[in-house]
Each structure stands twice: as C-alpha cells, then as structure tokens.
C-alpha cells in the first residue's frame, strides 16, 4: 500500500461552506475539497462532521489523482492539521469540535502528528493581517470582532449567535426592521418606508401577515438577514426609523471593535482594521458610520476593505507552526 506524507492539512469551515486543502511547505496546493456548512451549532454535530469528511475526502481524491495513486489504497500521514471552524466560542464548544474533528480524521484514516483547532474568525484574521497587528470586524448574517496585537495576543468580542447576540449583523438589522414596522402599525412610532419595502419583498399584503410570517416555518435567520439591504435603501431615502436602525447597528459594531482595541492596547498604535461580511462590504452608509466611530478612538487605524480568503490564514498558521517546530529541533 502506498504511503502519502503531506506537511499540512488546512480546513476552513464556516456557516456557509467547508474548504479543505492539502499543502506543501512552500504553500503549493496538492488537493482541494469543498462541502457545505460545518457549524455544528446550526446543523448538529453529526451533520457537521459529515461535511468536514466530505471536504477532506474530496481533497484526498485530488491528491491521489496528482500522484497517480488509487484512492483508498494509501496510508495517509499529515505533519500538521489546522482546522478553523465556526461555532467554537466556549470551552464546551472546543470539547465538542475537537471530538468531532478527531472522529472525522479517524473515519478518513488520516494520521495527524500535530492537530490545531481554532475558531474560523481567528483564521480569517490571520489571513488578512499576514501576522501583523489588526482587528477583523465581520458583519454578515452574524457579527463578531477579533483582534491580534504585535505580541501575538488575541482577543474577541461579540459572536454570541442570533438568539442572544450578533448585534449589528444582517439578521439583527432585519429583525429591527420587522419590529419598526410593527411599532409603526401600533402607532408607537411614525410612519416608515420599511413597511412597504418589507411587505413587497416578502410578498405579503398587510402588517398582520408580517407578524404571521415571523412565527411561521418560512421564517429563518437567513431570510431575516436578507431584509437588511432594505433598511439601507430606506435610510438613504431619509427614513428616520431606518437611519435609527443603522446608527444603532454601527454603534454595536464599533463597540465590539473598541472592546478588542482596549483589550489589546491598540488605541495609540498603528494597526489595520479589516471590515468583512456582506453588511459592511455592501452597506456604504453603515460602513461609514462604523469607520467614523473607530477613527475617533483609534486615530492611527488603517481601514482594509479587501476580501481576504480565510483559508490563507489557516494555511499560514499551520506553516508557521511547522517552521517553529523545525527550528526547535
């Protein structure tokens, strides 16, 4: 039986997709595989494990094709495997995800000499900063802020999920929009353009139907997040309720960033702040509000709007670990 020895297995697994790559020490890729969401908090541990397996197995097949080896007829040894996975927020999460990863590797019969498991947000941060000091603020369906300083110390704020957190996210903004429509219908606030925009978008005839939708099987976090562009549209037209929502969202995102800045003592030193996620990438008004607030507390910040690939951070972390280990030997 052939023996395949590879320096690095890198896996980036989020709420939308799972990407697995095998790489050489010079960063050249040997195999790539993709699968769906592997956030166990959203789809369950068993389903998440299967998506991880699917992505890695596809990458393994590509490696075998390159090497001219029949898939399933090789022994696999990986020097270092790094997993950046969504849903790793607490100590309990780490236990569950590490067990899930170990089970996936066992099922695939891959021997891993050194295993590193991190939150996917930290992987994205490392990919964006290339090891330098920086803060990553993500506002997509959910929201979170990560940071790293020059000493390598890391910190985070937010990211507690849609039920109890994710302030400033697409879901949070969409939920606020629904609430504003209901408040207006009650007469607890003024008339808002959001009423017509939301009803049209959802194909509903009246506000009561919006209430029914919110408690129906059709409701979802993703569909609620899809309402957030309507808030930006209304705000740009001067709608008071929409502007109020975006202002509050910007304050929450800036507060998360400020918390990380304070923890890492970055307020008076140069650092990069990376803004990622659909909300910050596409909503110009909201992004401007966030940037203005951050610059008021961290005047030396540099804003980076490039869409960095999280897998690059996972690979960088694994290769840095291998290099450090080699130097120690």
TrEMBL record:
<protein>
    <submittedName>
        <fullName>N-acetylglucosamine kinase</fullName>
    </submittedName>
</protein>
<dbReference type="InterPro" id="IPR052519">
    <property type="entry name" value="Euk-type_GlcNAc_Kinase"/>
</dbReference>
<dbReference type="GO" id="GO:0016301">
    <property type="term" value="F:kinase activity"/>
</dbReference>
<keyword id="KW-0808">Transferase</keyword>
<dbReference type="InterPro" id="IPR002731">
    <property type="entry name" value="ATPase_BadF"/>
</dbReference>
<feature type="domain" description="ATPase BadF/BadG/BcrA/BcrD type">
    <location>
        <begin position="11"/>
        <end position="315"/>
    </location>
</feature>
<dbReference type="InterPro" id="IPR043129">
    <property type="entry name" value="ATPase_NBD"/>
</dbReference>
<dbReference type="Pfam" id="PF01869">
    <property type="entry name" value="BcrAD_BadFG"/>
</dbReference>
<keyword id="KW-0418">Kinase</keyword>
